[in-house]
Each structure stands twice: as structure tokens, then as C-alpha cells.
Design goal:
The chain is of the alpha/beta class and 881 residues long. The chain has 4 domains: 154 residues, Distorted Sandwich (Calcium-transporting ATPase, cytoplasmic transduction domain A); 281 residues, Calcium-transporting ATPase, transmembrane domain, CATH 1.20.1110.10; 158 residues, Rossmann fold, CATH 3.40.50.1000; 121 residues, Calcium-transporting ATPase, cytoplasmic domain N (3-Layer(aba) Sandwich). The protein is built from 33 helices and 25 strands. The strands form 4 sheets. It has an 8-stranded mixed beta sheet with strand order 8-25-24-23-9-20-22-21, with helices on both faces. Strands 10, 13, 14, 15, 16, 17, 18 and 19 form an 8-stranded mixed beta sheet that branches. Strands 1, 2, 3, 4, 5, 6 and 7 form a 7-stranded antiparallel beta sheet that branches. β23, α24 and β24 form a beta-alpha-beta unit. α26 runs antiparallel to α27 and α26 crosses α28.
């Protein structure tokens, strides 16, 4: 049961945890430590290098290759032929697996990073005295003492607060420190209080930035909010990417195809021989192996891995660092991007954007001097974000805090506290005059004012003037600005008392400032690009709903037909109700970690490929649950980076959109590669099958392996590097349910495979006729050599066709130099195999004449005009790619 300590008064909390305000005794603490365990997070399991390598080998495509290698090795042994093809296949498998392990070699370090965020030692009351103990030895009921700079070691309920402010960004995602106080929180009409609003609780992993206080520990180890996140991380499941699913589907299809081919070949062989005997079985088995080698695209696995790896390099140049190879392709089909607000959509830098005052310079001076933020030599500001914004604003107006402090040094102060909601500082001028500046919440400061600055003069604060100030305050607040008021008071000499009650009265209001964390300038265009590309952005933030709505409206995330929802409303909503409504919600505010996971899972369950961004520890479970987890490189915690598939080096939403575009290009190219390789393999299968039925040998297994690994794979790799087509980000996001042959690819593979088969058969018979002078069906060395040359070069020329699945290659405005070089290299290597004597002998080739060579090349070139004609008809018919 989850106890709501924040709703109870201090006495009840101490009673519940079995503690006192003076802490536990050493004996009681030791007993609790022995029974409840240490204040540590559970260790996460890591996969060994061998296990990760084995996981690479478990890929269905790899398994098919290994089976093909074993079968080929056995048949080569019995027939006394070379087993070079076995070593070639094994080399491809090993290189691919090493590439995969190398790219994904960073083991899960999320739990370790969570542990490192915990404090090493803590000041605690034991036996009524202050003691320093290891944080891992803390127990429920301990009273810990906290001051600025301390890391909070466990979850606790605040007992005392002297202006205690804690930054809870790792848990809530919001960088503005939270003021803490000991009073109980009333639920009102809510069923619970969001994590970010529990002002009387402290949480493991957060940091004290101001003031001091004490708290009684209410939860340690895995019972903390951080522990819940660690537990959620271990439970979050990673699903297969769309590409992995499609390659698995392809593997099944190829497996059934190979088995079917073998069965048909055995049946045809038996019918031809009239009986089963040893020679027939061996011959038929050899043909079946040839067909198996022909059907399996040996280079596909390696080509896909290399294309993805090159994509990783390209993305890193654009500030997107990919940690998981397959995430590159998954990005290409992202349909939903759930983004954190602070730092990703906005600049994570509070900035003064509006003011209400007759004297801007005086207002800026008051705000800068009445703050503890410091101006650095490089113009940056160190301090609490709100105060840093005020000092930066003054500096921008030419009012350096360093100079202001020299002119009017601080001689006294009444520090900020959450009850008064203001602070005051007293300054001495060189002429001996004394001025006090007070800044704080407008409604509270206004209560202390009797005068107002107007037209450079001090006037009594009339009701009309008060209404004018309140109207200005409301105007800024309605725009989700954080509003602060500044007032002054002058003295002839230093006041005798610096107590708040003595200083904060009879003030003169100077004016108001409005500040906000402004949106990144490039994000609006990126959001528009998302819309055009059929991608829907969703904002999920720990900030207040008014601020979230203002930013989301400005960026175009929140539209007329969508709504915003606070996390508290999400708590009260059943899963069934949420499933009915989540499509209408574009903004979630004041959310907790479990909300983020719930939102991501709702979209995924509905069949949408979902990306989730985040930087805090609170984002880690949802990032791991998403199809694409995106961590922040600058503000992100180690925990988040370690579970992310991609890390943004610049924390910029626009970088995600660039990465999506790169992902689409890569997936587009992988589909082109698959179509190219499968149409090539289909031509090999049909050629072998037809020749077997007609009773002659058109190509041997070693010829097919050469075509698959050299004349197919080299151009395929180059094809994978093709630049993006112009309309890439104008297409709708593809559905992850689309099969491998979606968009008419199955038909394209079929007709292109048949086309190359017909050209190859034509080359075989023409070759035999040019050598023997007769048209007949028989085994022919010349025919085999010409068939090999035509098929090899037809594949190379066909790779040029595949630069665009629907567009004419003669209208493409870009060139693929690597593909052109690959085509030349394939032609050169194929020519060498035919004409270098020892290679020709190894491949059983005949030395063909120049005229035969030319005829074979002319037949191969025919693939370009034929495919161009079909593409023209497809474009006119409106067939999508």
C-alpha cells in the first residue's frame, strides 16, 4: 500500500515510520538495516559478450545462411568439389555478427547510473546527536539533515525547512527548484498530489540548492520513487523493430520457398528417372542446393547492417547519436513523437520577455541586486534559474551586477522563504543613503506597498493603480509567464533590524517582470515538417498546465481538435476510458513517470510507432518502453542515455526530425536493396528451375554465389547510400503493419525476376548457337559463360534502375558516384573471372569471343529501357512505391 505521508502531519508520520524528531538509536537503526536491507537499488543483469554474439546469430536470416553453408559443405564433400562457398558464407555471417555486437556493445548501465546518483554519505541524527553515515546504511525512521549542495539520499518527509529549495529535475523534468515546507498538504477534490507538487517531501536523486532543513526517511532502496523507476526499467520490454519483423517475415518466406523448390526438384527428378536411386538422389540434391543458394540473398544481412552503420555515422554528424543499430530504420516510420518540453522544445533558460514599469533600468537594477545569482566573466549567469534570468536581463540592458554591487553593496537581507513568497536586500550607496529592494510574488508584494512609481515620481497606491497592476499581472500570467514584482524603500541610515516584518512594509512598487522558458527558434519549423510528414507531436511535461498549453499553442502542437490534460486527471481515468480518449490529447502536464509509460504504451498498443524523448531519470522507463527512445546529451542523466536508442547531442527537437528524415531515407534504400536482391535471386531460381526441367545446366552453385556476393552485393551496398528522394518528407508515415512486399514491391520483384531470367536464357541459347551454329537444348560451356555474363551485368544495370522505385533514373537530379564505381568494379571483376585462365578454369568457363561478350552485354543493358517503360505505366496508374 502506498502511504501518502505528504497528507499527514509530522506527528502521524513519525508514528507511522516508528521514529522521533531526534532520530533513531544506533541499535534500532542496526536492527532495521538487518531486517529491511540496505538503501540501494537492485542490481541489473548484464548480457555477456558471448550471449550478445549468440543473439546476433539467432537472427532468422543468419540461421538460413548457416543451414545453407552446412548443406553446401556436405554436398561439396561428397561430390569432391571445393568448399570455398562454405567459407564465404561463414565469413559473411561472422563479419555481420561482429558489426552488430560492436554497434550495440554498450551494456545496460541504467541501474548503475541510478546508484551513482545516490549520495555517498549523509548527516543523520542517531541517539540525538549528529552523525555521518553511509547513505546505503540509512533506514526508515532516520532523521537526515540537509543543506545546500547535498544530494538527497532517500525519500523523506520534511520536518523543518529554513528556505529549503530542492531541484527535482531528475524526477520531474523541471529545472526550477521547489521550495519545501513541513506543513501537511490537503488533497482537496484530488485523489492524489502530483510528484512535483509534494512540497513537504524530498526524494532520492534530487539535490538541495538553497537553504537547509531536516526530513524523516519514509522509503529506502527499491521503495523510493527512484526505486520505482529502476523497477519499471527492468519490466519495460523492448519489441522488435518494423525492419526486424519484416526480415523475419522474409526469412520465413524464403525458408518455405527453398523447401518447396527442393520438393519439386525431387519430384521432377524421380519422374524423369522413374525410380529413386543413389546417383539420382545426389544429382537432384545438388540441383536443390543450387536453387537454395540462388534463393537466399547471402549479401542481404551484411548490406543491411552496413547501410544502417553508415546511417549511424551520417546521423552523428547531425547531432543524433545512435546507440542501437536497428533504431535508425525505426525512426523512419515514426508516427508519434512524445516530447518533453523543457530543453527539447524550449531553450531550458528562463528569459525575461515582458515588463510593466515606468523605469525599466530601475526595475532591472532592483531585480539584479535583490538576487543571489552571480554574473560570470563570460556573460553567463550562475544561480537559481529565475534569478539567473533577472541578472541576465539586467546585463543585457547594460547593467552589470558586478558594477551594481560595487555602486551599492549589500549590507543586510531578509532571505526568501516560501511563507512570505518574497525576499529583501538592503544596499548602501556611496553618498551614505540606503535603499532596500524587495522582490517576490506580485500579490504578496503588492500587499506590502503603500506607494507606486509613476512617471518617475512616487505616488500613493490608489485602488485604481492597484487594479492596473493586477490587470498587468493577469495579462502576463494568462500568457503562462512567471511574474515577479519588485518594490523599493529608502532610508536615511541603515535600519536597526533586518527582520522581514521590519523591512517589508511601506514599500513603493517599481513594477513587474514576466519571464518564460522560450521555445527554440527552429522547433516551430520542425513541428510543421512533422505535420507534413504525417507525424504527430505530443507534449509531455512536468510543468504546470497553463505553461504547457501556452508553449504547445505557440508551436502548433495543440490544435482546435485536440486537448490538454493534467496528470491528476490521468490518475482518475480507467484504462478503458483512456483508450477511448488518448487520440484527442496532445498535451499532458504535471505528469509522473508511470503516466509517461502509460501514454507511450497506449499509442503503441493502438499500432503506432512511437518515439519518446526525455532527460530526467523519470523519463527512463517510458524511453525504454517506446519504439524509439530518445535521450538528451546535454541535460540528460546517464540513466536516460543508457536506455535510449538515440541520444541528441544538442537536446534539440529539430534534430529528431532530421533523424526521422535520415531514417526514412535509409528504410527507402533498404527496400530498394531488398527489391534489387530478391529480383536478382528470383531470376537465378527461375533460370535454374527452367534449365533443370529442360535437362541442361545453365549455372553452377559457385556461379550463383559469385553473383550474389560480388555482382549483387557490391552495387547493393552502393544503392544503400543513395540520397533521399525529393518528396520523402511529404509522404505519410508508413504503417509498421505494412509487409515486406507492400506498395507493389512483390509484383515488381516478380516481373523484374522474370525479365532477367528471359534475358539470361536468351544469352545461353544465343551463346550455344554462336559456338555450335545450331539451336538446341543441351549443355554448353559457351552458353553457360554468356548466361553468367548476361545475368551478372543485368543485375548491375538493374541496380541503376533501383535508384528510384517509381521515378525515372533520367530525371534524378543527384548522382550516386559510389554506385557508378561499383558497377564498373562489378563489370571488371566479372570480366576477369571469364578471361583470366586459372579463374575461368575454377568456374568452368569457356573463353568467349568479343562478339559473344558484346551480345551478352547488349542483352544485359535491355533491363534499363524495359523497367523505365514499366515505371512510366506505374506512374500513370498512380501506383505508390
Amino acid at each position: 500500500m502506498h502511504l501518502k505521508y505528504y497528507c499527514d502531519d509530522i506527528d502521524n508520520v513519525l508514528s507511522t515510520v516508528g521514529g522521533t524528531s531526534s532520530g533513531l538509536t544506533e541499535g534500532e537503526a542496526a536492527n532495521r538495516l538487518a531486517s529491511n536491507g540496505k538503501n540501494k537499488l537492485a542490481e541489473g543483469k548484464k548480457d555477456s559478450l558471448a550471449k550478445r554474439f549468440a543473439a546476433q546469430l539467432a537472427d532468422p536470416m543468419i540461421i538460413i545462411l548457416l543451414v545453407a553453408a552446412i548443406v553446401s559443405g556436405v554436398t561439396s564433400y561428397f561430390s569432391g568439389e571445393s568448399i570455398a562457398d562454405v567459407f564465404i558464407i561463414l565469413f559473411v555471417v561472422i563479419v555481420n555478427s561482429i558489426l552488430g555486437v560492436y554497434q550495440e556493445n554498450k551494456a545496460e548501465k541504467a541501474i548503475e547510473a541510478l546508484q551513482q546518483m545516490a549520495a555517498a554519505t549523509t548527516k543523520v541524527l542517531r541517539d540525538g546527536k549528529i552523525a555521518i553515515v553511509k547513505s546505503e546504511d540509512l533506514v526508515v525512521g532516520d532523521v537526515v539533515l540537509l543543506e545546500a549542495g547535498d544530494a538527497v539520499p532517500a525519500d523523506g518527509r520534511v520536518l523543518e525547512s529554513a528556505s529549503l529549495q530542492i531541484e527535482e529535475a531528475p524526477l520531474t523534468g523541471e529545472s526550477v527548484p521547489v521550495s519545501k515546507y513541513p506543513e501537511a498538504i490537503g488533497l482537496g477534490d484530488q485523489s492524489d498530489v502530483p510528484l512535483g507538487d509534494r512540497k513537504n517531501m524530498v526524494y532520492m536523486g534530487s539535490t538541495v540548492v538553497y537553504g537547509r532543513g531536516s526530513a524523516v526517511i519514509t522509503g529506502t532502496g527499491m521503495d523510493t520513487e527512484m526505486g520505482k523507476i529502476a523497477d519499471a526499467l527492468t519490466q519495460a520490454k523492448e519489441g522488435q523493430t518494423p525492419l526486424q519483423m519484416q526480415l523475419s517475415q522474409l526469412s520465413k518466406i524464403l525458408t518455405y520457398l527453398v523447401l518447396g523448390i527442393c520438393a519439386v526438384i525431387f519430384a521432377v527428378g524421380a519422374l524423369r528417372e522413374g525410380s529413386f536411386n543413389g546417383p539420382m538422389l545426389l544429382d537432384t540434391f545438388m540441383v536443390a542446393v543450387s536453387l537454395a543458394v540462388a534463393a537466399i540473398p547471402e549479401g542481404l544481412v551484411a548490406v543491411v547492417t552496413i547501410v544502417l552503420s553508415v546511417g549511424v555515422t551520417n546521423m552523428s554528424r547531425k547531432n543524433a547519436i545512435i546507440r542501437r543499430l536497428t533504431a535508425v530504420e525505426t525512426l523512419g516510420c515514426a508516427q508519434i513523437i512524445c516530447s518533453d518540453k523543457t530543453g527539447t522544445l524550449t531553450q531550458n533558460k528562463m528569459t525575461v520577455v515582458d515588463d510593466f514599469t515606468p523605469d525599466t533600468a530601475l526595475l532591472a537594477t532592483a531585480m539584479a541586486l535583490c538576487s543571489d545569482a552571480e554574473l560570470n566573466e563570460d556573460g553567463s549567469v550562475t544561480g537559481e534559474p529565475t534569478e539567473a534570468a533577472l541578472v541576465a536581463w539586467a546585463n543585457k540592458l547594460g547593467l552589470s551586477k558586478d558594477q551594481l554591487r560595487i555602486d551599492a553593496p549589500r549590507v543586510g537581507e531578509a532571505p526568501f522563504d516560501s511563507m512570505r513568497k518574497m525576499m529583501s536586500t538592503v544596499h548602501l550607496h556611496s553618498d551614505g543613503s540606503v535603499i532596500q529592494y524587495t522582490k517576490g510574488a506580485p500579490d504578496e508584494v503588492l500587499k506590502k506597498c503603500t506607494h507606486i512609481l509613476k512617471d518617475g515620481q512616487v505616488h500613493p497606491l490608489t485602488e485604481a493603480a492597484r487594479e492596473e497592476v493586477l490587470a498587468a499581472n493577469k495579462n502576463m500570467a494568462d500568457r503562462a509567464l512567471r511574474v515577479l514584482a519588485a518594490a523599493k524603500r529608502t532610508y536615511a541610515a541603515q535600519p536597526e533590524s533586518f527582520e522581514p516584518d521590519a523591512l517589508e512594509r511601506d514599500l513603493c512598487l517599481i513594477g513587474l517582470t514576466g519571464m518564460i522558458d522560450p521555445v527554440r527558434p527552429e522547433v516551430k519549423a520542425a513541428i510543421d515538417k512533422c505535420r507534413t510528414a504525417g507525424i504527430r507531436p505530443i507534449m509531455i511535461t512536468g510543468d504546470h498546465i497553463d505553461t504547457a498549453i501556452a508553449i504547445a499553442t505557440e508551436l502548433g502542437i495543440l490544435t482546435e481538435d485536440t486537448t490538454a490534460m493534467p496528470g491528476s486527471a490521468l490518475n482518475d481515468m480507467s484504462d478503458e476510458e483512456f483508450e477511448r480518449q488518448f487520440r484527442q490529447i496532445s498535451v499532458y502536464a504535471r505528469v509522473q513517470p508511470e503516466h509517461k509509460v502509460r501514454i507511450v504504451n497506449a499509442w503503441r498498443k493502438a499500432g503506432y510507432v512511437t518515439a519518446m524523448t526525455g532527460d530526467g531519470v523519470n523519463d527512463a522507463p517510458s524511453i525504454k518502453s517506446a519504439d524509439i527512445g530518445v535521450g538528451m546529451g546535454i541535460t540528460g542523466t546517464d540513466v536516460t542515455k543508457n536506455v535510449a536508442d538515440m541520444v541528441l547531442a544538442d537536446d534539440n527537437f529539430a534534430t529528431i526530425v532530421s533523424a526521422v528524415e535520415e531514417g526514412r531515407r535509409i528504410y527507402d534504400n533498404i527496400r530498394k536493396v531488398i527489391q534489387f536482391l530478391l529480383s536478382s535471386n528470383m531470376s537465378e531460381v527461375i533460370s535454374i528451375f527452367t534449365a533443370t526441367l529442360l535437362g541442361f545446366t545453365i549455372l553452377r552453385p559457385v556461379h550463383l554465389l559469385w553473383i550474389n556476393l560480388v555482382t549483387d552485393s557490391i552495387p547493393a551496398m552502393a544503392l544503400g547510400l543513395e540520397k533521399a528522394e525529393p518528396n520523402l518528407m511529404e509522404r505519410s508515415a508508413r504503417s509498421p503493419k505494412d509487409g515486406i512486399f507492400a506498395g507493389g514491391m512483390g509484383v515488381d520483384i516478380a516481373y523484374q525476376g522474370i525479365m532477367v531470367t528471359l534475358l539470361t536464357l536468351a544469352a545461353y541459347f544465343i551463346g550455344h548457337f554462336m559456338e555450335a551454329g545450331v539451336w538446341e537444348i543441351t549443355n554448353s560451356a559457351d552458353g553457360m559463360t554468356m548466361a553468367f555474363l548476361t545475368m551478372s551485368m543485368a543485375e548491375v544495370f538493374h541496380s541503376l534502375n533501383m535508384r528510384s522505385r517509381r521515378g525515372s533514373i533520367f530525371t534524378l537530379k543527384t548522382t550516386n558516384l559510389i554506385l557508378n564505381l561499383a558497377a564498373v568494379a562489378s563489370l571488371a571483376l566479372t570480366t576477369l573471372v571469364i578471361y583470366v585462365p586459372f579463374l575461368a578454369e575454377a568456374f568452368s568457363f569457356e573463353h568467349i569471343s568479343f562478339s559473344e561478350y558484346a551480345v551478352a552485354l547488349v542483352l544485359a543493358v535491355c533491363v534499363i529501357p524495359i523497367v523505365e517503360l514499366v515505371k512510366l505505366l506505374q506512374r500513370r496508374a498512380g501506383t505508390r512505391a
